[in-house]
Amino acid sequence: MVVGFIGLGTMGREMARNLVKAGHAVQAYDVAQVAMQDVVAVGGQAASSIAGAASGAAVVITMLPDTPDVQAVVLGEGGLLHNPPAGRLIVDMSTIAPQAVRAMAATLKAEGIDLVDAPVSGGPQGAKAATLTIMAGGDADAFARARPVLAAMGTTINDVGGSGAGQTVKLCNQLMVGINLQSVCEALALGRASGLDLVQMREVLLGGSAASWMLDRLGPAMIAGDTSAGFRIDLQLKDLRLVQELASALAVPLPGRALVSSQYLEAKAHGEGGNGNQALFKVYDRMTNQSAG
Ligand code: NAD
Prior knowledge:
The chain is an alpha/beta fold. It is 51% helix and 14% strand. The strands form 2 sheets. The protein has a 6-stranded parallel β-sheet, sandwiched between helices. A 3-stranded mixed β-sheet has the order 7-8-9. The longest helix is centred in the middle third of the chain and has 29 residues, at 165-193. It starts with a strand and ends in a 5-residue tail after the last helix. The relative contact order is 0.10. The site of nicotinamide-adenine-dinucleotide has 27 residues, from helix 4, strand 7 and helix 6.
């Protein structure tokens, strides 16, 4: 299949490489020229515009930072609304607002173009290993057309409902990610202050009822004081903002979200927005006057 891919950042470049490896002809576009190098290196083609990425494609995938970025690429000047792929299918895999997805889907539908929202979970490791969890919303028929392409990037692929449902499930995921990571920070801070061996403590806890993806995958970097990204604190803050927008619209109180958002904001205020989200532990370094590593 000819697949257009727009947004070749931390996640997108790995996902696009897997599409090439699965035999698809990938036409990649990113505003940052350098971002396309990894895909070209495995046989993808660099496009010079959104229209170039979409030209002759069965589907265009977008993997962009935030809602306004996707709106610009889809609805903006030179965007996909006016330069649709031949297959008239767009799959947005970014994490953005479900309300915005539904509005875009309606605008596109009026022009005979389908939009599937298909955000992912699994981080850069999952993107690289093609083991992402993909939660998709949109028409069942459009999902069925997208599925062969999604299968090159993920292993757990579910149609979770109509337009925006994929993003809604993803926001629930991000709420849990944020709060779960904070719980790991808090336990590690207490263990450290108690003089425990944190490497051993993590191994022990992974065998019990407090085990979690965060403790498993991010615990080692937290204990070592490794702040590299991964999933940036700035993106976690963006997701917690999207969660709040949804919760406010539905009048659902989320006190846990409010607390962890303040802590991520504290990290950002210290210039740490570009760190990986595991570096939330630095907030606990400051609160306890101790440091990791
Ligand atoms: P990133 O910032 O590393 O990559 C985004 C890419 O989009 C960049 O290369 C940027 O140059 C490009 N871009 C921005 N605006 C553009 C435009 N108008 N046209 C073309 N290219 C443009 O972000 P990421 O970490 O790859 O995340 C992408 C999305 O996936 C985000 O919504 C994020 O929340 C979500 N996500 C990220 C992770 C993770 O672990 N990093 C995990 C799951 C989901």
